[in-house]
Amino acid sequence: MSLHSKSDRWKSVRQLVNSIVPFVLLWGLAYVSLPISIWITLALAILAAGFMIRIFIIFHDCCHQSFFAGRKANAIIGTLTGILTFFPYDQWKNEHSIHHATSGNLCRRGTGDIWTLTMEEYMALSPWRRLGYRLYRNPLIMFGLGPVFLFLVQYRLNRKNARHKERMNTYLTNAALIGLMGLLCWTLGWKEVLLVQGSILYLSGVAGIWLFYVQHQFENTYYERELEWDYVSAAMRGSSFYKLPTILQWMTGNIGFHHIHHLDPRVPNYRLQQTHESNADLQHVPTIGLLQSLRALRYRLWDESSKRFVGFKDIKGGFHRQNAENVR
Questions:
Q1: Confidence of residue 260 (pLDDT cuts 50, 70, 90)
Q2: What is the pTM of this model?
Q3: 118 neighbors 303 (Cβ within 8 angstroms)
C-alpha cells in the first residue's frame, strides 16, 4: 500500500477548504437564523455537525502523520483542527496510537477504546461494578452523556503520566478554546453561542462515538489473548468496512474503510476507498450496512468460547455452555 500511503498536498489543502469554509458558513447561518426559527437553526446545526466530523477526520489524519508529508505541518494543522473540534492534538495522538497498537488484544485493553469485558470478567465483578458497566454500555449513557464527558471533562484534563509536551499542548488547546468561546460569547451573546455551538458539538460527538463504536463492536469481531493476537488479523477482522451512503461516506471522510485505516494508518482518508478497491484481498472483510449496524447496540460482552459479542441476556446460556465444555 506504499503508493496509497503518500499524501497529496493539494488534495489535503482542498479538503481543508471544503470542510472548514462550509462549517464556518453553516455556523454563521445557524446563528443568524435564531430569531427566525429554532428549527431552521437545528437543521443548520445538523449540517454543521457533519462538517465538524469531516474536520475531525483531518485532525485524525494529522495525528497519524498522514495528512501532510511533513511532521511540522501535521502538528500545526492538527493543533488548529483540534481546537475547532475540542480535542488536544498531542494527547489524542498518543492515546490513539495505543489504540491502534492494541486493538483486539484482550490483554491490553483500556486506552483509547470502548470499555469491553468478557463474560467471565463481568461475572467476577461486584454488583456495584456490574451496575457501573451496565450503565456505561447503556446507549442512553454512552451516546447521551458520552459527548458531554468527552468534551467537558476527559479531554480538558491531562492523562496520568503525560509528558511535558503533551501537557503543554492540552493547556494550549484549553486556553485557545476559552479565548475563542469567550470572544464569541462577548460579541454574539452567550445564550446564542451556547445554543449553536453546543448543538453542533453535541451532535457531532454522538455521531463520532457511534462511528468509533460500530467499527469495532460487531458480532464476530476479533479479540485474542496476547500470545494469539496478530496485528494484521486485528485490522482485517476486528475493524469493519462500514458501508455508508455516498454523502455520509464523504462527510465522514471515508472512515468507514476502517480495516484499511487500521492496516496502514499512513493512508490519508481521501485514498482509503482507492486502496480498498485496488486489492481484492482487502475487500473480503466484515461489511456492515447502515441498518445492520443498529444491531451493535445489543452487544455488551465478549464471549471467548464462541468468539463473538453477546448481550447481557446471553450470559446465563453462555456460562452453561462453558461449564459443559469444561466437564467434557
A1: very high
A2: 0.92
A3: yes
